[in-house]
User: Fold this.
Amino acid sequence: MSLLRALRYNSQTLCRSVISRSSSSLTDGEVRITEVLKEKFPLASALKVVDISGGCGAMYEIHIESDEFKGKRTVQQHQLVNQALKDEIKAMHGLRIFTDVPRK
Assistant:
């Protein structure tokens, strides 16, 4: 098998596995981080945690919308999330954070 064909096959397999993963099958890390954020941000109107490292827990993407961010700059909002996850972050390679204040 040529290198190009192998790359195509592996990327197709990876895409199928990512697409087939339903939103109801969260990883342990996604569940743990979601629980911590729900506890730290009880006013959150939207929260989504996604393991973007393929399920190994090395990198996460977090989308959180909360009234607790009202009047704070983006950097301050991100600092609040980082502080809430300080223990979990120690085991991560990377973290993407997207914060917002709910629109009313």
Remarks:
- The chain has four helices and three strands.
